[in-house]
Every structure is written in structure tokens, then in C-alpha cells.
Amino acid sequence: MIRKSISKQAPTGLPSPVGAWIDRYRHDGGLRQYVVYLAFALILATFSILLHDDGFLSSSNLLNIGRQAAPIAVMAVGMAFALAAGEIDLSVGSVVALSSLVAAEMVGNYGFLAGALAALGAAALVGMVNGLISVKVRIPSFLVTLGMLGIISGIARNWNDLQSLPIRNDRFSGIFGAGGLGPVSSLLIWIVIVGALGHFALHHLRWGRHVLSTGADRDAANAVGINTARVKISALVVSATAAGFAGILLAGRLSIGRHDLGEDYLLTVIAAVVIGGTNLFGGRASILGAVTGALIMAMLNNGLILMGLEVADQLIARGVIIILAVALSMREAKEL
After folding, report:
1. β-strands 256-257, 180-181: how paired?
2. Which residues in 146-185 are b (16+ Cβ under 10 Å) and which e?
3. Which residues are 256's β-sheet partners?
4. Which of 1, 14, 255, 281 is the least crowded, having the fewest Cβ atoms under 10 Å away?
């Protein structure tokens, strides 16, 4: 009798804590969740060896990489939530430009705080419109945000007849880009703050769990009482707001608002997020991975320039590396 009961309780021979760990490991993406960190280490080591004499590891160059990565990292955090919820936001590049112009306009008239809040408000409004149209009218977010990309780009271009708007506010520039805390750039500080807030929201707030549940299986999420429509709208608002904040950082660093800021960031941001372990089809996301992916993209850009590659060759090399990295990150982990 004792032998029979033992065999029924543990037919697989695996202790329950080990089995639970394996299930959680597979659910989180298995080996894929570590690919981005391995890629970061390999790329850093490769450039460090190849570009040792070109000052790749100098403090000034590493700081420059961090500065370049900051707006991409902030946008990647927001995009991770949109993708985790099963949506996508193609309008983020145009939102960057719009928010920089709003900030520049408002800072000159009402001060640095009003400028920052107005820029974030404008970005959040764009995200709200994206979400409402996508959810209420039942148009895929891919198409909605693609259309919004054109609309916002047109508004930005007409804002000041393609002319840049200068920002002459030292406090705004110091807080949002040009300043720092000792030797540490304010842009690096904002990467840490935004990344920490995103990680906390995803893993420690009920809303974050609802985002993942909605992206994994919307019908099942609805069945357990999650308002998936509200979750999807809020995820797109977060994505657009993050893009708006990236626009503020760029405006602070460059001390201008301009219609073309961020227009080339979209594919880089999506690549950073997917390389970081976020599922393109929803249900899984990694904020730390997205930030690391942004650092990888900035490091690639910096390293290829230092290698002296022509622009065309840089595009080819960057494209090949992105495809390989994304393919590795999305490959299904083997069964243990």
C-alpha cells in the first residue's frame, strides 16, 4: 500500500519545487531571456578588441553610447508594454518630434515644468486616440498607428514651417539631457529611473499582470474579469507617453524642438525590444532586456562608425546583426 501511494504521488520522479521552477523557466522564455545579455557581452568584447586603439572603451565614448541609447531605451520600455498587450505602436517616432516641439513652445512661454508636462500630455493624448480607435472601432493597432504616424508627422512639419524651435532654458536642458549628477549624465539617470518604473509596473502591479494576460490570451483574460479593452488602450498610452518623454530628452540634450527628431527610431526601438526578449505577439516582456537591447543598438551604431564603415556598409552590417539577434531571441528553447 505504501509503495503504491508513493508511486502515484510522484510518477515523474521530479520534486515539486524543481518542476515548478522548470515550468516558470519555460513560461518566461527559457534560454531566450538570457540571449540579449550574452549578445551585449559578445558585442562589447568584440568592439573592445577591434577598436582598442580607437578609444572605444574610453570613458567619453562609453558616456556617448549611453547618451545615444537614452531615448531609444525610454521608447523601448513603452513599446514593451504595447507589444506585451498584443498591440504595436508605429507612431512613436512622430510623437518624439511632436513632443519636442510642444516642449520648446511651452518652455519659452511658461517655464521648464509646464513645457515637460505639456509635451507628455500631448503624447498621452496621441496614445489615447490610438487606443480608442483600435479597440472601439476594431481596427488593428498596426494600421491605426501607421495612419497616426503620417498625421503627427504632418502636424510636426507644419508647426514652424520646418524650422527648429530653440530652447533657452538652462534648467530644462540640465534636467532632461545636457546636465548630470557629477560625472553621470542626466540621460543615464533617466534610463535607470524609467527602466525601474517599467520593471516595477510590469512585475509588481496588477495592471502589469493584466497586460501580460491580455497579450497571452485575450479571451481567457476576459473570462476571468480583466477589462482587456482598457488594458490595451492604457498600454498604447504608455507607449506614446514614453515616446513623448524621449522627445523631451532629445529636446533637452540638443536644446531645440524639431520636426524630424526621432523619425529614424522606430525600427531600432522595435529591434531593441524584441532582442530584449519581448514577444512580438504578446504575453511576454522584459523591461531590463529592452533597455539592454537599446544599449546594444547604440553600441552597434557607435562601433560601426569608429570602424570607418561607409553609411551603406553600416546599414548592411547593422541589418545582418539585428536579424541574427532577433532570430536567436525568438527561437524556441529546447525541451529540458
Report:
1. unpaired
2. eebbeebbebbeebeeeebbebebeebbebbbbbeeeeeb
3. 166
4. 1
8 Å CB contact between 329 and 277? yes
Residues 293 and 83: beta-carbon distance below 8 Å: no
Q: Percent of the chain beyond pLDDT 70?
A: 87
Q: For residue 208, what is its C-alpha cell? A: 502589469
- Beta bridge partners, 185, equal 180
Question: What does the alpha-carbon distance between residue 122 and residue 97 come to, in Å, rounded to a whole number?
Answer: 11
With both helix axes pointing from N to C terminus, report the angle between 141-159 and 228-254 in degrees, rounded to the nearest 10: 30
DSSP state of 265: -
The beta-strand segments (E) located in the chain are 165-166, 180-181, 184-185, 256-257
Cβ density class 242-255: b for 16+ within 10 Å, e for less:
bbbbbbbbbbbbbb
Rounded CA-CA distance 246/229 in Å is 26
Instruction: Give pTM, 2 decimals.
Output: 0.86
User: Over the stretch 229-240, which tens digit does the pLDDT of each residue have?
Assistant: 999 999 999 999
Bridge partners, 257 (sequence order): 165
Closest CA to 305 of 317, 319, 294, 287: 317
The alpha-carbon radius of gyration of the chain (Å, integer) is 22
Query: Given the DSSP bridges, would you call strands 165-166 and 256-257 parallel, antiparallel or unpaired?
Result: antiparallel
Query: CB of 98 within 8 A of CB of 123?
Result: yes
Quick one: which H or E segment has residue 312?
A: helix 311-330
Q: What are phi and psi of 51, to 5 degrees?
A: -115, 30
